[in-house]
Design a protein that fits this description.
Layout: H1 2-21, H2 28-49, H3 59-92, H4 99-125, H5 131-146, H6 153-170, H7 175-199
Helix pairs in contact: 2-3, 2-7, 4-5, 5-6, 5-7, 6-7
């Protein structure tokens, strides 16, 4: 009995230490919604780039439409993630803005903002074929860099997206397809996994 109680106490201490160093209120449902937004964005991108009923007078108009779609997807994904994460943190009694969440955000934003600046340079230089690979690779690096401060599943998401980004760079011309796979399908798959693993029970994180 004493031995079992000792082991239980150690396990509880480890869980407390893990919770204090990692932000664990990320919502799997927000990942699913981000994937849905990305697939809708990819479909809109397809309608913009390829023959459809949508007509654009100039090449610049096509660029502006694509940037608007990408910005809309990003804004919707961020707002949904913030809302659902706040709701989950409130329900579980976790502080939304503490040391672990600040570290998570900082480690996520540094590669992401670097990638954003790099993509803007690609747009300026008209290296269109490298935009989809670059967004995937830098986003994957952001997930990988931030994963040590949150759920370990984010690490595997990051690695998967990086691989898709590299494949997208190799198979030039299929950027929209890989973009849909990385930001759409992967988010839905990992979001679903995280939802059933963490959101619907008291699983060990």
């Amino acid at each position: 009995m004493d031995s079992n109680k000792y082991l239980d106490d150690i396990s509880e201490i480890k869980n407390m230490m893990s919770r204090s160093s990692r932000f664990i209120s990320l919502s799997g449902l927000s990942g699913i919604m981000a994937g849905v937004y990305a697939l809708i964005g990819a479909y809109l991108g397809y309608l913009i780039l390829y023959p459809s009923n949508w007509k654009f007078d100039t090449y610049e108009a096509i660029q502006e439409a694509l940037i608007a779609v990408a910005a809309g997807v990003a804004i919707l994904a961020v707002l949904t993630a913030a809302l659902l994460t706040f709701r989950k943190a409130k329900r579980s009694g976790e502080h939304i803005w503490d040391t672990s969440s600040k570290r998570l955000l900082a480690n996520f934003l540094i590669p992401l903002l670097t990638g954003g600046i790099f993509v803007l340079l690609l747009i300026r230089l008209e290296y269109w074929v490298m935009i989809a690979p670059s967004t995937l690779i830098f986003y994957g690096m952001a997930c990988l860099n931030a994963s040590k401060y949150t759920l370990r599943d984010v690490r595997y998401l990051g690695i998967t997206v990086i691989i898709l980004g590299l494949l997208s760079a190799y198979f030039a011309g299929y950027g929209l397809l890989f973009w849909a796979l990385g930001f759409g399908v992967c988010h839905i798959l990992y979001g679903t996994l995280m939802h059933f693993k963490y959101d619907t029970g008291d699983s060990n994180k």
